[in-house]
Amino acid sequence: NQADLETYINNINNDLCSQFSFSLQNITGLVNSVHNINDIINMLQTNPSSATIALQQAAVQTQLASQNALSQLNMLMAQQNQKSLAEQKYEKQTTNDVYNGFKRAGL
After folding, report:
1. Cα 101 to the chain's mean position, in Å?
2. What is the DSSP letter of 45?
3. 55 class by beta-carbon count within 10 Å (0-12 exposed, 13-18 middle, 19+ buried)
4. Rounded CA gap, 1 and 9, in Å?
5. CB of 37 within 8 A of CB of 61?
6. What mean pLDDT value characterizes the chain?
7. Residues 23-44: tens digit of each pLDDT
8. Residue 38 class from Cβ within 10 Å (0-12 exposed, 13-18 middle, 19+ buried)?
9. What is the pLDDT of residues 47-85, one digit of tens each?
10. What's the burial of 66, exposed, middle or buried (CB within 10 Å: 0-12/13-18/19+)?
11. Pick from 66, 44, 64, 67: nearest CA to 55
12. CB-based contacts of 27: which residues, under 8 Å, 6+ apart?
């Protein structure tokens, strides 16, 4: 029914806003990880052994941050597809309702 579809579309819009916000946070975390790696690389000259350990840890953190960002973006795209499908269904039902109204009116 139309009201349920409208509610569903609005809920997806809200979810898309949340997912977009989470995606930006994940991307920001990824950027911070890259900056951290750059700082560690600079530290290699002064303290190579601790820099090496820090670099390994930062590499793992960066990999996790990038995986999180990609997962979040995939979720965002899936929700956008759901929204598009719901909007198409809503438009089709609206068109059918108008057509049936014309038909009942004898037009």
Report:
1. 40
2. T
3. middle
4. 12
5. no
6. 86
7. 888 888 888 888 888 888 888 8
8. exposed
9. 888 888 888 888 888 888 888 888 888 988 898 898 899
10. middle
11. 44
12. 69
